[in-house]
């Protein structure tokens, strides 16, 4: 098969902290496809752009800068999920968070809000970034420091940036995916930084036991 305009790809950062799996997911809409490109090739190209190291580093360094040094980014995954789901592609990374200190708990997160042009809850996507460092350079009395919010803005810029694969290729446009609805996606146009820390109950150790 081959990719086409309107296809949706899911990109995932797969990491671990204290034995817990930590995922950051982001979706992209394919636009302006020129020529024939298969799904696996497109997935690999997307990973190569978001990852660090020898990649394009659209997301990785900015993401790691927000995380505790005891977090580990294990891999990046990419997969076409609409209109037909394909086998995912994965590339190992094995790099640690580069924040100002270790994370003291896995359920404290910073939130980046991404918005489409239209109003309504379905056109808003919140990215819970964590585990964040537990020191005063990151947060004071539950409020994220200005320096840390600057780092959040750097990641937010990457999350709302289109990725051009070229020359003469195609573009991955950041979007919010609406499963089973019409339209299928809303393009992301703006972002906002939440100034206070948030708690993610599902990342609390042994919840449900």
- Uncertain spans, ≥5 residues at pLDDT below 50? 204-209
Separation of the first and last Cα atoms: 44 Å
- Give average pLDDT, whole number: 94
The share of residues in extended strands comes to 35-45%
Number of domains: 1
Q: Structural class of the helix and strand makeup?
A: mainly beta
Rg over CA atoms: 17 Å
Count helical runs: 3
Write the layout of secondary structure elements.
Blueprint lengths: L7 E10 L2 E12 L7 H12 L9 H5 L7 E11 L6 E8 L11 E9 L7 E6 L9 E2 L2 E2 L1 H14 L3 E3 L4 E8 L7 E9 L4 E2 L10
Antiparallel strand pairs: 1-2, 1-3, 2-10, 3-4, 5-6, 5-11, 5-12, 7-8, 9-10, 10-11
Describe the structure.
It contains three helices and twelve strands, in the order ββααββββββαββββ. By secondary structure, the chain is mainly beta. It has one domain (8-202). A hairpin with a 7-residue loop joins β5 (108-116) and β6. The radius of gyration is 17 Å and the shape is globular. Mean pLDDT is 94; it is low at 204-209.
